[in-house]
Design goal:
six-stranded antiparallel sheet, alpha+beta, Ubiquitin C-terminal Hydrolase UCH-l3, about 230 residues, thiol protease
């Protein structure tokens, strides 16, 4: 399938993406995370349900991607990315599907329908749900053209990638990345309201510290609307 135009890391666009596919913006929306120190993390509306993380692809991150083991965590819906530059949409799907936000979706919404169908399929069979979903493709295309910056061409080489962090009911911090082969557990015992702090600590020690010359990092949290 042809590449998609990448989505801009923009909380307003992410909130609109969800709204177009069925989520009530009066209940949940996305928020910028302006820094990793505790004072700035405390500014983010709580409770945080999921965290999207944008980072530059480097030789270090790419080498780790092929080496790290994945986990078979129960209750997670994982979607493989097969469309180039679709990591923003895959990340948004992972964020909503694997958090309490999913329960707020109308049963007949585009997102709820997609998630229900995906759960009945094996992971390798779920890719067609995205590539053949007209509502998803239309929403992605519309919002990719509405960012504050000039959108790159669909076939342009983009070295930035989105992943998502969620907390499972058992308290595990899990990273969901459509370019890998499944979920990755990053921590086992995260407090009930500790998702954002745990994500910030992991991102700082795992991604930023290992790529000290990279600057294109961005965190966006999914939480209650304000």
């Amino acid at each position: 399938m042809s590449p998609w135009v990448p989505l801009e890391a923009n909380p307003e666009l992410f909130s609109e993406w969800c709204a177009e596919l069925g989520l009530d913006q009066a209940k949940y929306s996305f928020h910028d995370v302006f820094g990793l120190d505790e004072e700035l993390l405390a500014m983010v509306p709580a409770p945080v349900e999921a965290v999207l993380f944008l980072f530059p692809l480097t030789p270090t991150t790419e080498a780790e991607r092929t080496e790290e083991p994945v986990s078979s965590e129960e209750g997670l819906l994982w979607l493989k990315q097969t469309i180039e530059n679709a990591c923003g949409t895959i990340g948004l799907l992972h964020a909503v599907a694997n958090s309490r936000v999913r329960a707020a979706l109308p049963a007949d919404s585009a997102l709820a329908t997609l998630f229900d169908e995906a759960e009945s399929l094996a992971p390798e069979q779920r890719t067609r749900l995205i590539s053949e979903n007209e509502a998803l493709q239309k929403t992605h295309a519309n919002l990719a053209a509405q960012g504050q910056s000039v959108a790159p061409e669909a076939d342009e080489d983009v070295n930035l990638h989105f992943v998502v962090f969620v907390r499972t009911p058992s308290g595990a911090l899990v990273e969901l990345d459509g370019r890998r082969s499944g979920p990755i557990v990053r921590a086992r015992h995260v407090p009930k309201d500790g998702l954002l702090k745990a994500t910030a600590q992991f991102v700082q020690s795992h991604y930023m510290a290992r790529n000290p010359n990279a600057v294109q990092f961005n965190l966006i949290a999914l939480g209650p609307a304000v």
